[in-house]
TrEMBL record:
Listed GO biological process terms: microtubule-based movement; mitotic spindle organization; spindle elongation
Protein name (Swiss-Prot/TrEMBL): Kinesin-like protein
Binding site for ATP: G88, Q89, T90, G91, S92, G93, K94, T95
Keywords: ATP-binding, Cytoplasm, Cytoskeleton, Microtubule, Motor protein, Nucleotide-binding
Length: 358
């Protein structure tokens, strides 16, 4: 607490798709073990290091355990502001890593082995709350940023734009967002699936289910730990309870599924799709610029332009403030995606130098 903590950055390399294999694409990304990955292609030969690397054979469970996600859940219960976000090229496996198969629904749930970081974290959170003997109050909110508009994915009716405000005590926050309390795994998974189905997606040449918005699911964890006997001088309380209350804590666990970066020429996008792509790329560029500046030593940092996009405003606390952040970089091993893969790897390498003070 209060000490400088580096962002934890892990890498996930998805398998080659059937289309890429039929096309004859070469696999240019190879895991070297111990968190190192090597990219070998014509005129490009580079090695990158991360906290962990998960290759094409890694299971969803291995990613959950090896990324440090379990520790992040425990820190949120302890009152810290925790964030995990997945980023990378469109079609690189970000949503699959966070949620699992896209085809799942309340009537057709995914196989337990394929569930993503979100559902596994919900299970871990509810297990921890029972084992710790704490009075935990859990609530969830789910937003998307589409074409620089913040929209609530849980409110009934068509998604409408919500104002983004700033205050000295709260920092940047979304006004009038709906927050739903939950006590069971079924309830929170239902909220996740309902909200995800309302999120903007489209099909293009690189991805049949391309996310056209950035999505942020935030779990508020409010705890009031209790002991079996009252503290000295505390007495029995007005309600006649024999429990002594410890100070309450409030933590957050935020999952950010960033829309994928894309080149309009590669995706064949036009019209509305092209406008969406430009909006996505602008906000990702703003995020990359903030990360580049935050990666500099604290004494050499200039003004961090969080206000350049709504995405960076909402991630300001996670990136450069008092939060604890896990970044999951997702890449394709295909030779055809070399440029975007290198861009993601350089982006992730810079992020490893960013520090916060939880």
């Amino acid at each position: 607490e209060g000490r400088e903590t580096r962002l934890r950055v892990v890498l996930r390399v998805r398998p080659l798709t059937c289309t890429e294999t039929r096309r004859g694409d070469q696999q240019i990304v190879h895991s070297l073990g111990d968190g190192a990955v090597h990219v070998s292609a014509a005129r490009h030969d580079a090695t990158f290091g991360f906290s962990a690397v998960f290759d094409a054979g890694a299971s969803q469970e291995a990613v959950f355990e090896g990324s440090g996600m379990r520790q992040l859940v425990e820190l949120a219960i302890d009152g810290f502001s925790c964030t995990v976000f997945a980023f990378g090229q469109t079609g690189s496996g970000k949503t699959y890593t966070l949620m699992g198969p896209l085809a799942q629904s309340e009537t057709q749930p995914a196989s337990p082995a394929l569930l993503g970081l979100m559902q596994r974290s919900f299970t871990c959170l509810l297990e921890q709350s029972r084992s710790r003997g704490s009075d935990l109050a859990l609530s969830a909110s789910y937003l998307e940023i589409y074409n620089e508009q913040v929209r609530d994915l849980l409110s009934p009716g068509p998604p409408c734009a919500l104002p983004l405000r700033w205050s000295k005590t709260r920092g940047f926050y979304v006004e009038n967002q709906l927050s739903v309390e939950f006590e069971s795994l079924d309830t929170i998974v239902s909220l996740l699936l309902q909200g995800s189905q309302r999120r903007r997606t489209s099909a293009h040449a690189l991805n049949r289910h391309s996310s056209r918005s950035h999505a942020l699911l935030t779990i508020q964890v409010r705890s009031r730990a209790v002991s079996a006997h009252p503290a000295p001088g505390q007495g029995w309380g007005a309600q006649g309870s024999a429990r002594g209350a410890c100070p309450s804590k409030q933590g957050t666990l935020c999952f950010v599924d960033l829309a994928g970066s894309e080149r309009v020429k590669e995706t064949g996008s036009s019209g509305e799709l092209s406008v969406e792509a430009n909006s996505i790329n602008r906000s990702l560029l703003a995020l990359g610029h903030c990360i580049s500046l935050l990666a500099k030593p604290r004494g050499k940092r200039t003004h961090i332009p969080y206000r350049d996009s709504k995405l960076t405003r909402l991630l300001a606390r996670s990136l450069g403030g008092s939060g604890i952040t896990l970044m999951v970089a997702c890449i394709s091993p295909s030779s055809r995606c070399l440029s975007e893969t290198l861009s993601t790897l350089h982006y992730a390498s810079r992020a490893r130098r960013v520090t916060t003070r939880p």
